[in-house]
Amino acid sequence: MALYAAVLAQACNLGPTRMAEVSDLSYRQLAWATEWFLREETLNAASAEIVNHHHRRWLAQAWGGGTLSSSDGQRFPVAVKSANAASLPRYFGQGRAHHRLHSRLRPAHGLRHQG
């Protein structure tokens, strides 16, 4: 259970501290699962498996070879200055806006893993 919660905590950008606060698991359990299992190479391998599985599905194959994506953006006005907000006048004019590149689903930008 700690491994699933650790993956979810990372996917939601919560981290083990916040996940421990909102779950029945301790920080120690989540930190252990994160330390032992959630390394860059294991996450990349898992992501490649998910992308490869997706590409084997008949519906995904009907949409092509997986080299194109459909991407979209949203605008969230920011009422005050923030170190985490950046203005993008090219898209939103001179007002304040927050820009964040976010990938909720890695397969949306993943290419089929060879090998």
Q: What layout of secondary structure does this protein have?
A:
Blueprint (H helix, E strand, L loop, with lengths): L1 H10 L3 H8 L4 H11 L2 H17 L1 H5 L26 H4 L23
Helix pairs in contact: 1-2, 1-3, 2-3
Description:
This protein has helices at residues 2-11, 15-22, 27-37, 40-56, 58-62, 89-92. It is built from six helices and no strands. The protein is flat. It folds into two domains: 1-56, no CATH class; 73-102, no CATH class.
| Rg for CA atoms | 18 Å
Helix residue percentage: 40-55%
**What is the SS-derived class?**
mainly alpha
| Number of self-contained structural domains | 2
SSE order = HHHHHH
Strand content: under 5%
**Unreliable runs:** 104-115
Overall, the morphology is: flat
Overall mean pLDDT? 76
N-end to C-end Cα span = 30 Å
How many strands in all? 0
Oligomer: single chain
Please outline the major beta sheet: none
What's the tally of helices? 6
In short:
This protein is mainly α.
Keywords:
disordered C terminus; single chain; about 120 residues; mainly alpha; flat; 6 helices
